[in-house]
Amino acid sequence: MLLLLPYLMVMGVNGAEQALTVHTFDPEEWIACMLEEQIPTGYELEAVKAQAVITRTNFYREMAEGSSLWSIVMKSGEYGASAGKFLEDFFLKKEECYEEAVSETENMVLTWNEELKLVPYHQISSGSTRDGQEAFHSQEYSYLKSVDSSEDKKAEEYFSSFYIPAAQMPKVLEIRERDGEGYVSWLLADGKPIEGEAFRTGIGLASADFKVQKIGNRYRFLCKGKGHGLGYSQYGGNCLAKAGYGWEDILQTYFPEMEIKNIVQIPDAGV
Question: Which of 15, 114, 209, 218 has minimal Cβ neighbours within 10 Å of its Cβ?
């Protein structure tokens, strides 16, 4: 904790962002710290390595687009609510699996047409991942293909139920469209259209692959999977790792249109 004092003092006087300027920047250090907030410690190392490449890709992509270092790390995991927690996690020793995953995939990223792109991930799919073009309603995300992830159905958290008082819900809720994997694309709430993912995050559902039923004075939502269902299913990737897949094979399974590349030039890291 004593090693943290200079940084905590700077943060107390000038803010958490300024504290970053007193430490020499090493991208791989930040990636290991963000990784710790993104995937459970109990997962197989090869599954964690796959997540490390995803984290690095998104990190470098945002840097290349002009985002500051601080804005990127604060969006990672739980840090948005606690800058102090980030600094504490950064300077304290991390679980070995995270540093090992970063070290053994050093400089490796995913690209599409030689470009760094958004590489999404989630905890558990509903049995297959979602098609990016269909989910985002844009050809820009056509590199995200729907792939089988049926092992996810064995996860303890695959099914989840949520009950919400009818008084807190629209009087009329009508699901109008689902995508090819069963996730709600859009629905009507008292006649007003709402995008499915926005609706589920707004009321705190586990996923947008849900069924809804009114029971008495409550609405019951039964969800499949956990998260938005796009890109890398961490649970599915962990199952592949247990079956002997390496991190490269795991990534090629979930991102068949993308290539694994060794990044030649790291974008400038403005704080």
Answer: 114
Instruction: Give tens-digit pLDDT for 103-125.
Output: 999 999 999 999 999 999 999 99
- Please check whether residue 58 is in contact with residue 119, taking contact to mean a CB–CB distance below 8 angstroms: yes
The reported pTM is 0.84
Cβ atoms within 10 Å of 25's Cβ, excluding its own: 14
Say if residue 207's pLDDT is above 80.
yes
SS3 assignment for the chain:
CHHHHHHHHHHHHHCHHHHHHHCCCCHHHHHHHHHHCCCCCCCCHHHHHHHHHHHHHHHHHHHHCCCCHHHHHHCCCCHHHCHHHHHHHHHCCCCHHHHHHHHHCCCEEEEECCEECCCCEECECCCECECHHHHHCCHHHCCCCCCECHHHHHCCCCEEEEEEEHHHCCCCEEEEEECCCCCEEEEEECCEEEEHHHHHHHHCCCCCCEEEEEECCEEEEEEECECCCECEEHHHHHHHHHCCCCHHHHHHHHCCCCEEEECCCCCCCCC
Q: Residue 225 and residue 180: Cα distance in Å, rounded? A: 15
| Cα–Cα distance measured from residue 76 to residue 86, given in angstroms and rounded to the nearest whole number | 10
